[in-house]
Design brief:
Helix 1 packs antiparallel against helix 2 and helix 2 runs antiparallel to helix 3. The chain is an all-alpha fold. It is built from 7 helices and no strands.
Length: 251
């Protein structure tokens, strides 16, 4: 039976995470963090290096995993995206600690460099927008841009999580969707069964009328057939007699 417009779906549509700004920025923050560690954090002398890279990676990868799991489970999607936010906060804290421990400066509101940084991070999302600067910025600049990106990503993710929360409240989780889908399917089958059962007496009546009509036409056909055969044999007999009569006269 063809799928109707009110069919309930168990699986949700796959989100295209590459089109989401907070994912794009998370890709930037991971690559920025990696480049920062390569330039400014010693490979063996500072354990912060691994923590920074892993926190940035955890943020990006949990966004991907969460959005992928969202096809089946909104609950798991919410959990994984919140894990991504937690990793993001850890990463931001590491960059803030770096500035404090090295006695560098935070870019603050009112400064031209702060306004430029804020506008750039707000309107630029792709890695290609930032990558050319990774080898040029100082550690202070990289930290401030990283912190600002973390704030933007967190804010965007919170808006996205609020939307998912409302969807979860409205649509429920995977078990509720499965129940609705199965219940809806059974209801469709029950409605179809009732429809067929309601149509059955009418179809039986139509069949009886058709059979009676067929029997009438069959009787009429048999009568016509018998009359045609009788006329045929009569004409055949008449032709035979005429031929015999004409034969005798020729003699």
């Amino acid at each position: 039976m063809a799928e109707t417009s009110n069919t309930q779906h168990v699986l949700k549509s796959q989100a295209n995470w590459d089109a989401l700004y907070f994912y794009q920025k998370s890709d930037v923050i991971y690559q920025l963090a990696f480049a920062f560690c390569e330039r400014f954090i010693h490979l063996y002398k500072d354990r912060t290096r691994d923590q920074v890279i892993q926190a940035a990676r955890s943020c990006k990868q949990n966004i991907v995993e969460g959005l992928a799991d969202g096809v089946a489970s909104t609950e798991m999607q919410l959990k994984l995206l919140n894990v991504a936010r937690a990793s993001l906060k850890e990463l931001r804290e590491d960059f803030e600690d770096y500035i404090k421990s090295r006695h560098l400066q935070f870019f603050v509101s009112g400064e031209p460099r702060y306004a430029d940084m804020l506008n750039y991070c707000r309107y630029h999302n792709r890695l290609s927008d930032y990558e050319p600067f990774f080898a040029q910025w100082t550690d202070e600049q990289m930290c401030n841009y990283a912190i600002t990106l973390c704030h933007f990503i967190d804010r965007m993710m919170m808006s996205f999580l609020k939307k998912l929360e409302q969807e979860f409240i409205t649509d429920g989780g995977i078990k509720e969707r499965m129940h609705r889908a199965r219940t809806g399917y059974r209801q469709q089958q029950d409605e179809r069964l009732k429809q067929l059962e309601a149509e059955l007496p009418r179809l039986k009546q139509f069949l009886a009328e058709a059979q009676a009509e067929a029997a009438k036409w069959k009787a009429a056909f048999e009568d016509l057939k018998q009359r045609a055969l009788k006329m045929y044999y009569e004409k055949e007999e008449e032709i035979k007699r005429l031929k015999e009569l004409l034969g005798e006269e020729n003699l």
